[in-house]
Design brief:
Layout (H helix, E strand, L loop, with lengths): L6 H9 L39 E5 L2 E6 L2 E6 L4 E5 L5 E5 L4 H22 L2 E8 L4 E5 L2 E5 L6 E4 L4 E6 L3 E6 L2 H13 L10 E4 L16
Antiparallel strand pairs: 1-2, 2-3, 4-5, 6-11, 6-12, 7-8, 8-9, 10-11
Length: about 220
């Protein structure tokens, strides 16, 4: 069964002419691009104080910092450069004006300051073991933790770090590299993070554990 065609369709198909060359005007859509303004980092523009017992060596984009506690090195990206002023301060500056340069500006200023502080004073992270029978001991370069498992947890201490144990429940991680100190302390905590009901586990000394209330007894 065929349906009847409208009259205007018949004229187009059988008697009319279709001009394929004719173009239909289409409105042009414009896009407005906003220029990204890279503001100077508030952290990155702060100067870095260098103590008298710290030596700075810069070769190209490679920085070496040497102090009483050892030596640290880092490679700068091409977006930022390090300058030493006549006053003795260090300043990290952007080599180009891009968004990535703005990000690297504050980051490498913080990393450089951590290196200077690390080789002169060092960093430490303190942990507390909370729980019945929880204890820690250090023998040479091995840290042994008793955290309620069926077996003690043994961890190898990295060469650049020192670990001290006080009263069998207080662990202190000491080192010149701030990231290494934090990473090893986080590894210790990850074996038994503090639980929210009784607060048992390994926690940082300044950590606040949010406690939860246990299930209440059946009401009579």
């Amino acid at each position: 069964m065929s349906l009847p065609l409208p009259s205007h369709m018949k004229s187009l198909l059988f008697g009319g002419k279709i001009d394929l060359s004719a173009s239909v005007p289409v409105p042009r859509v414009g896009f407005w691009r906003k220029n990204v303004e890279c503001k100077e980092s508030r952290i990155g523009k702060q100067p870095i104080t260098v103590p008298a017992n710290v030596a700075i060596a810069m070769e190209g984009q490679d920085l070496k910092v040497k102090g009483p506690l050892g030596e640290l090195s880092i490679t700068y990206p091409r977006e930022v450069i390090l300058e030493k002023q006549e006053s003795g301060f260090l300043r990290v500056r952007k080599a180009v004006e891009t968004r990535r340069a703005n990000q690297m500006h504050g980051l490498f200023r913080t990393l450089t300051d951590n290196m200077v502080v690390g080789v002169s004073k060092g960093f430490e992270k303190k942990l507390q073991l909370v729980g019945v029978g929880y204890r820690a001991t250090v023998e040479g370069k091995e840290l042994t933790l008793n955290l309620g498992f069926s077996h003690p947890v043994k961890m190898t201490i990295p060469d650049e770090l020192q670990v001290k144990v006080e009263e069998n429940t207080r662990v202190t991680v000491i080192g010149r590299d701030k990231s290494a100190v934090g990473q090893f302390a986080a590894s210790i905590r990850s074996w038994r993070p503090p639980e929210p009901y009784k607060g048992k586990g390994v926690r940082y000394v300044d950590e606040v554990v949010r406690r939860k209330e246990g299930k209440a007894g059946k009401k009579k």
